Amino acid sequence: MKQSKQSSSLRVVAGVATQGHQVLVAQRQPDTQFISWWEFPGGKVEQGESDQQALAREWREEFGVDIQVGAPILETEFDYGDKVIVLCSFWCDIIDGTLALNQHQALYWSEPRRLDAGVFSAADRPLIETLRHHFDTESACTGAEKADAMIQASL
Hints:
Elements: E1 8-19, E2 22-28, E3 38-39, E4 42-44, H1 51-63, E5 66-79, E6 83-96, E7 104-110, H2 125-154
Parallel strand pairs: 1-6
Antiparallel strand pairs: 1-2, 1-4, 2-3, 2-7, 5-6
Protein name: 8-oxo-dGTP diphosphatase
Keywords: DNA damage, DNA repair, DNA replication, Hydrolase, Magnesium, Metal-binding, Mutator protein
GO molecular function: 8-oxo-7,8-dihydrodeoxyguanosine triphosphate pyrophosphatase activity; 8-oxo-7,8-dihydroguanosine triphosphate pyrophosphatase activity; 8-oxo-dGDP phosphatase activity; 8-oxo-GDP phosphatase activity; metal ion binding
């Protein structure tokens, strides 16, 4: 979407932690904008921070864990009218600590295909589709590899 002249742009990062074929999502505390919506954990990039530094800081603040930020997944832009969100998502691994609900009301591990995009903010929805495609493709490859191994074993 194009940025309008009245809108201010805000860079936001999101981390996608995985456990098998599941991703971690968090339910926000109720507020005036995103009433109890689900999200991929992350937050605003502060001045002077890299995307990776911001993501690590946000996970430490929100969940009390240290993460290793991996490869970028997707960058999307969504115009909410009063502001434009540029959402940059990254794969991440939890490397230290136990997840705590410091700023959210719930955490949930889910297969991306089971996520209801309607309970996520509009900026998160393209990421859900990307993750569904990624895990569907990964599952298909894994299935094919298993079939090849079964064929090889029977020869």
